[in-house]
User: What shape does this take?
Amino acid sequence: MTHAAILGCAGQGLSREEQAFFRDVRPWGFILFARNIDSPGQVRRLVDDLRATVDRPDAPVLIDQEGGRVQRLGPPHWRRYPPGRAYGELPANDPLLQREIVRLGARLLAHDLAELGINVDCVPVLDVPVDGAHDVIGDRAYARTPEGVARLGRAACEGLIAGGVLPVVKHIPGHGRARADSHLDLPVVETPYDELDAWDFAPFKALSDMPMAMTAHVVYAAVDSRRPATTSKTAMRKVIRQAIGFDGLVMSDDLSMKALGGDFASRARASLAAGCDVVLHCNGDLDEMRAVIAGTRELSGPAARRAKAALARLAKVPEPLDLEAARARFDAAFAGTWAP
Assistant: This one.
């Protein structure tokens, strides 16, 4: 039995207790954070050890490696990458250049991750910021229009997939106009539905063919005035699945974020009941993970179909890459505008 969950671990190696827990509950996947990272060899061993606990060599191992302020791998072993906004600020009179460099940057990210055995990157951010919104998204967004975000978001997905890494579009159906940080509080968006549909939902519609998406812990009053999208059947069915048309695997954002209420079993249960295919818990706290698992179920039915379809899109042979030339081209594009 595989549980419909993605879990973290506490440190740079697995404790015996963690190993036994993961073997017993068999989560669908795992996620890494900076606390889990030291050196390339150490990360590769940890990734291998995580997969060994569930006896699945293709088990998803995720990371948030966007660039800018959200980058779990960094110097001295890995390069710094720019935030999304820096790509959108490349010469505006040459949109093909922007797209080329986003794709190239994502291909380089995929190279870094694939060398470690990491096969899923929680990129791209498809949220479209608006004036007055909290800066939790801010410079993570590629542009300030749905069209710009969609265009560059697709280029990022293409670069990751070409390098053998699955993208996760986030935060569906849109976090860009939230006036609170969902890590700390529950944002409530009062914008009328038609405006949400034309603006916030638009990039996700444009990339509805992607394999995986992560939800927003945001209440959209015009959709469901009581529940955030993660735990709202209405948001999941009428917006994410129908209006946006997303049929890939939907994972919750981190269940330990303060936007959600209730105990961890209840949070997991509510997310799955709303229509999430799998739930995500990130901080590696073993007691919290036990509670999350108590609220999850076997990955089966349509959720299992979507999970299998997502993994099937992993490139068995990555697109060829001249690493030295690619890095030189990437650096030249940002010369004088952004530096690591």
